[in-house]
Amino acid sequence: MSQERIALLIIDMINNFDFSHGSILAQKAQKTAERIRELKERFNQKQLPVIFINDHYNLWQADYHKIIDYCSNPTSRPVIETLLPGKDDFFLIKPKHSGFYGTALHTLLSQLKVNTLILTGIAGNICVLFTANDAYMREYKLFIPDDCIASVDDNDNHYALMMMKNVLKAGIEPSTHEIYQHYII
Fold first, then answer.
1. Is the dihedral of CA 65, 71, 75, 79 positive or negative?
2. Burial (0-12, 13-18, 19+ Cβ within 10 Å), 93
3. What's the CATH code, domain 6-184?
4. Max CA distance (Å), the chain
5. Omega of the bond leading into 123 within 30 degrees of 0 (cis)
6. pTM (2 decimals)?
7. pLDDT at 2 over 90
8. Distance (Å, rounded) from C-alpha 21 to C-alpha 17?
9. Least-confidence region, from 3-12, 58-67, 149-158, 173-182
10. 50-55/149-150 β-pairing
11. What ranges do the domains of the chain cover?
12. What is the pLDDT of residue 1?
């Protein structure tokens, strides 16, 4: 097998939380944002790929500044400010739940020779799960740190993690687990 090359995906963390139960998800996202930021900083230090993949909010432009401006409000600002894309990070927009559907994600990962993914973001039971499913179908090795995803309902989040572990063969250890040290260091 070829050498493993890993990338960090940050899914939908630039969000306006303007939907039913959005304030609940925003509170949970703030907790996960801190952990995701720590992973992102370790990836940036090692010059490993960090890829933000985000809803487009009908702007249809992969310009994260415009999406941040559109999404910024008192509820979303703490999450967004915790986890801003950096100058060397990639930023893609997606039209649906999966980060692979209708995007250049698979092509980008192929160009970067990535075969292992760490998926983070919201909602764990929707966009993270759908992205994980599509990644598994494309034969990527998967890790979903259980402290780096959030869903409105904790039971839904737990169920999504169990699905990703049992069906998609994903590692779901916390972001502080030694397995991540193996890949990032």
1. negative
2. buried
3. 3.40.50.850
4. 48
5. yes
6. 0.95
7. no
8. 8
9. 173-182
10. unpaired
11. 6-184
12. 39
